[in-house]
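Might you be able to review the protein record set out just below?
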Amino acid sequence: MSEEKPKEEKKDDGKPPYRGKPQSDGGKPPYKGKPQSGGGRPQRGPPLSPAQQRRRAAEERISNWTPKTELGRKVVSGEITTVAEALASGLPLREPPIVDLLIPDLFEEVIDIHMVQRMSDSGRRVRFAVTTIVGNGDGVVGLGRVSGKLVRPTITKALDRAKLNIIEIRRGSGSWECSTAVPNSLPFEVSGRTGSTRVTIKPAPPGVGLVTNQVGQIMLKLAGVEDAWSFTKGQTQTIYNFANAMFKALEKTSTTKLLPGQGDFHNMVKGVKQE
């Protein structure tokens, strides 16, 4: 008679049995330890800021952009290479990628985001109004305001609106206290109005700085003005009215007719400084 082999008793190590899918290597559970060096998920860099995300989106938009207007086709072909030429051409500016292509170092600022509520038959509807300012810090500035249902897409639309509203301003040394030839301020006093808000900007000598509120400092800094005094009247707590009134005042620097020799006397520069 053949001897029966004794059955091996399974050792109880205290771990529950693996009940997953059968593996080709004898039913062993998959390895869940730390990934070895050189393998695993690649390391990610630091997260991008909202401004960097918008800049990356603008670069992708330029690479995939097909111009639909005459001004856009001239910019792509190389006939127009600067913002001054684009604004002087008389063609309407209707595509934001034109500004992204002509001014790659454009700065963007969001100055106001507030909620707007409206009652309708279906209930209360909530929207967000966003006000933005763009500029290159060298004589070019723009203002935009858009309302929408979501904040992030509305910010993008407001920035595009500001790019379509860009203007060139005149800068100079218009203060009687100024003895330098550097166009650090405005060439003369200008004023603008929106609703009950009135803003007057006066030229100042070097070293004074921007004597205005935070919104005015952002707009003048992006416009390339280093020294100025501002005087306001009316309801100035409404951010958009104040910003729009100051924007209209800056626009008058380029639309006001000059006297003979006034440009040389105040060392005026329109738009970007020519080195």
Notes: The chain has a mean pLDDT of 83. Helices lie at 50-63, 70-77, 83-88, 96-102, 151-164, 214-223, 239-255, 262-265.
